[in-house]
């Protein structure tokens, strides 16, 4: 397999259980625990600006309501995306992809960037994110993001826009044809729900030259199981329990 530049341990949505997910505050908290790679979700504003948010709608993580993708970036950038978790984070905005790219590159961090399109914009979002990442990481000292998505159309769009950027297919079930799709998209890896990953699946992926990663692993016993199987990446919320600097885990 080709050399793999990404760390084994990846902080989910920054450190999305200890600080507001998908914000710079969450990245800073994850970094304070020694993490050097971060997973986050990116979608497009109504005027085509890539920014970080997991949900299609705003109500779970902001005081606003409605589809985030229907708002202009000038509006979204002023929303409080932190106060829902703790008032000490009140006023923390949803960051643009530009802001996140600046932060991770200046600190030598790496990114697992999940393309999370507003429904109906899968291909267009992949194209826009691919173009943006190509420009933002052009000539950079750190490897570019690993672009991931549950939506093959989004990965296809990213491939058309920036074929040189690495891609991985996200899976919550092993649906019919997933393996052929991953290969057809030129993926370098597959990221599954941790409950799906076993020795046979890792063997199949590694045998095809693909890396095997899992989300969201918060239980030490599961982490040990996956480490024993030779997993290539573990995405976790438990940044305060798992050490990113060693193969072992904290109890």
Residue windows where pLDDT falls under 50 for at least 5 positions: none
The total number of structural domains is 1
CATH H-level homologous superfamily name:
Phosphatidylinositol (PI) phosphodiesterase
Annotation field: number of helices: 8
CATH architecture: Alpha-Beta Barrel
C-alpha geometry = globular
Approximate strand percentage: 15-25%
CATH classification, class level: Alpha Beta
The helix-and-strand class reads alpha/beta
Helicity range of the residues? 25-40%
Key terms for this structure?
globular, alpha/beta, 9 strands, 9-stranded mixed beta sheet, 8 helices, TIM Barrel
Descriptive report:
It is globular and about 45 Å long. A 9-stranded mixed beta sheet has the order 1-9-8-7-6-5-4-2-3. β2 (37-44) and β3 (50-52) form a beta hairpin. α4 packs parallel to α5 (152-161). The two termini are 32 Å apart. It has one domain (9-236): Phosphatidylinositol (PI) phosphodiesterase (TIM Barrel, Alpha-Beta Barrel), CATH 3.20.20. Helices cover 30% and strands 17% of the residues. It has 251 residues and is α/β, with parallel strands linked by helices. The mean pLDDT is 96. The longest helix is centred in the middle third of the chain and has 15 residues, at 122-136.
């Amino acid at each position: 397999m080709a050399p793999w530049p990404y760390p084994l341990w990846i902080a989910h949505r920054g450190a999305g259980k200890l600080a507001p997910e998908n914000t710079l505050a969450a990245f800073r908290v994850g970094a304070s625990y020694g993490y050097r790679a971060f997973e986050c979700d990116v979608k497009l504003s109504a005027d085509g600006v890539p920014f970080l948010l997991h949900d299609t709608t705003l109500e779970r993580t902001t005081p606003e309501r409605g589809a985030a993708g229907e708002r202009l970036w000038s509006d979204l950038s002023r929303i409080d995306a932190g106060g829902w978790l703790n008032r000490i984070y009140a006023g923390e905005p949803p960051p643009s992809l530009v802001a996140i790219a600046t932060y991770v590159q200046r600190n030598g961090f790496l990114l697992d960037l999940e393309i999370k399109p507003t429904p109906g914009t899968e291909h267009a979002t992949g194209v826009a994110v691919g173009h943006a990442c190509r420009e933002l990481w052009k000539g950079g000292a750190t490897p570019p993001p690993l672009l991931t998505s549950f939506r093959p159309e989004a990965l296809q769009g990213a491939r058309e826009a920036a074929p040189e950027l690495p891609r991985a297919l996200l899976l919550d079930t092993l649906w019919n044809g997933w393996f052929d799709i991953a290969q057809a998209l030129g993926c370098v890896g597959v990221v599954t729900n941790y409950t799906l990953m076993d020795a046979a699946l890792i063997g199949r992926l590694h045998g095809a030259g693909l890396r095997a990663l899992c989300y969201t692993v918060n239980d030490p016993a599961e982490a040990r199981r996956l480490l024993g199987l030779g997993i290539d990446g573990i995405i976790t919320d438990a940044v305060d329990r798992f050490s990113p600097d060693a193969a072992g885990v904290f109890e």
